[in-house]
Hints:
Mean pLDDT: 97
Strand content: 15-25%
Number of helices: 14
Shape: globular
Radius of gyration: 23 Å
Amino acid sequence: MAPRVLIGQFMHETNTFSSQPTGYDAFERVLLHEGPAMVTALRGTNSETAGFLAVADAQGWEVVPSLAAIATPAGPVTRDAWDRLGLAIARTAAEKGPFDGVLLALHGAMVTELDDDAEGALLEAVRAAVGPDVPIGMTLDLHANVSDRMAALSNVICPYRTYPHIDMAEVGERCATLIGDAMAGRTRPRTVIARRALAEGFDQGRTDAGPMLEALARAQAAEAKPGILTTSVCAGFSSSDIAFMGPSVAVSYDAGVDGAEAAARGIAEELMDFCWATREYEGNIYLTPDQAAAEAKAHETGAVRPLVVADYADNPGGGAYGDATELLRAMLDARLDNACFGAMVDGEAAAALHAAGKGATVTLAVGGKVDPRFGGHPLTLTGVVERLTDGKFVCDGPMWRGIAKSFGKTGVLRVGGVRILIVTNGMQITDVQQFRHAGIDPTAMATIGLKSMQHFRAAYQPLADKVLVCDTGALCSPDVRKRPFKRLRRPIWPLDPVA
């Protein structure tokens, strides 16, 4: 008989400092498919589930799909969403077994109203359903906060090895292949983990330059050692106020190979020593919004390719509110002639644009409505409604290629020479279709202002003349020392002096 494999995807990066809880509706707005619908929606896309399915098809497994759910980062996942989504995967495991293997696509930094270690709780529930001997593999985001419970309950951990994240399907295939070996009895995978007194490390995990590249090269080289199956380097997610937050290295090894466990522990500790040694490396230079806007104005003269200005601090992909106004204010003050800005998350303003209609001249308050302390107060703007859309688009860039997404009700307000993309659903800019679906061609702009930390680089750096990064003081401001931690283990660098 063909092996029966349970697959599920439940992903959220929880910013515990956000005042906006993540309910069931937040998953409905981004991605939610149950049962066979998840297979139809995700097969062939750049997703972990697509990677699982590719290996399952090649090896002739019987796949039992539970659900796939993703929400934009925000505050803790509600009890209701956890029961209807996370525990639904565990219920499928209990009701539709027995299973020969389990493959889960998780984030690794989810916090619920019930548990700071949501992935550990999910693994615990699934493990209780399938038994102690069924191999469980999970993919994780490179920014996972990996707990001891997660390492103990899973057999194989496979995080992304790119930031911007562009290897989701590849990671799914790697994880599924390793679980296939375990199901066939070729390996007996187990996982060990190491961490340090670090809240941040590996330069926040960026893989276009810096210490993460060296760490990943060492990790891959270590996999040549006998019994080492895969080495997982995670940068952690520092907007999460939980005890075990921070970078980690998890090594999955074959318990059937003599000396493999000791070798795995040595690899994990050595890589975390490297993380400690490079902890002060910072690859970004953070400008103020006014500095960035002034450089953008100077760039307009003779511009052939766009200047990209990223609002690092107001990244919805890190749980920021997406409505910070400081960069937009600076761009307008600089009187830029040919610029776009997005996405401003303001459902009230988007609805007002739709009510006014295309071509109307309107005056309205834009942005700064969730908490003006983080990134600026609302701006009262007068402009022309240039385009109205339903916010739906299909990604065609390196990150989410083939996956349909929606900003919800969306409009473009042109104020002087700046086109402002105003949306209902929060989402960081990762794909050119986010602007193009609303009639804005980023390649025709002299300046592109966007809300993202690093993921934008996959699609936008190739078309840019230059990239600038600014700190608007929004919720994901890069200085971790400003966050009011209460549950994080202490002492920890850089919040405390640590020997």
